């Protein structure tokens, strides 16, 4: 599969938010329905605008994954469940590291697949917080590229 990175427009935000929700439902089993409904409008109306956003489309032209960067940090990385295991997350991370100088990421400790993925990409845990950035009880691991 040949992949390419592109910068989405605001018209893509609804599809990106739908991808986010599908990915979270498939990978964040520690989140309840109320948590997903709390975060979903924030993704659409605030968080996507707060990052440099890059996407990958699948062969049907649908967004298969996206990454949001701020300075040297990955703020968000999500892949559609139908594209899990197809190298899209790796492709986006390699782009972020090589082209954008990313060296940091925060990850939910309760998402072991994501923690393992970032370790595989060369990141190591440097600190841990009991809560996420909004003070919710979701432990966060701060990781740095080694």
Structure overview:
With 146 residues, this protein is an alpha+beta fold. The chain has a single domain (5-145), classed as Gcn5-related N-acetyltransferase (GNAT) (Aminopeptidase, 3-Layer(aba) Sandwich). It is 36% helix and 28% strand. It has four helices and seven strands; from the N terminus they run βααβββαβαββ. It has helices at residues 13-27, 33-47, 88-100, 112-120, and strands at 5-6, 52-57, 63-70, 73-79, 104-108, 123-129, 140-145. Strands 1-2-3-4-5-7-6 form a seven-stranded mixed beta sheet, with helices on both faces. Helix 1 runs antiparallel to helix 2. The mean pLDDT is 94.
Tell me, briefly, the overall form.
globular
CATH topology group: Aminopeptidase
Query: Any idea of the CATH class?
Result: Alpha Beta
Average residue pLDDT: 94
CATH architecture: 3-Layer(aba) Sandwich
Q: Rg, please?
A: 14 Å
Number of strands: 7
């Amino acid at each position: 599969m040949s992949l390419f990175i592109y910068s989405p427009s605001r018209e893509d935000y609804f599809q990106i938010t739908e991808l986010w929700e599908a990915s979270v439902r498939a990978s964040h089993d520690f989140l309840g329905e109320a948590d997903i409904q709390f975060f979903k409008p924030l993704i659409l109306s605030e968080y996507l605008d707060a990052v440099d956003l890059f996407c990958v489309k699948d062969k049907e032209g649908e967004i298969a994954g996206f990454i949001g960067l701020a300075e040297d940090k990955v703020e968000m990385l999500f892949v559609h469940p139908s594209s899990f295991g197809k190298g899209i997350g790796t492709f986006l991370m390699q782009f972020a590291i090589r082209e954008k100088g990313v060296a940091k990421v925060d990850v939910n400790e309760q998402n072991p697949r994501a923690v393992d993925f970032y370790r595989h990409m060369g990141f190591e845990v440097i600190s841990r917080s009991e809560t996420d950035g909004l003070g919710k009880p979701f432990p966060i691991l701060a990781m740095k590229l080694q």
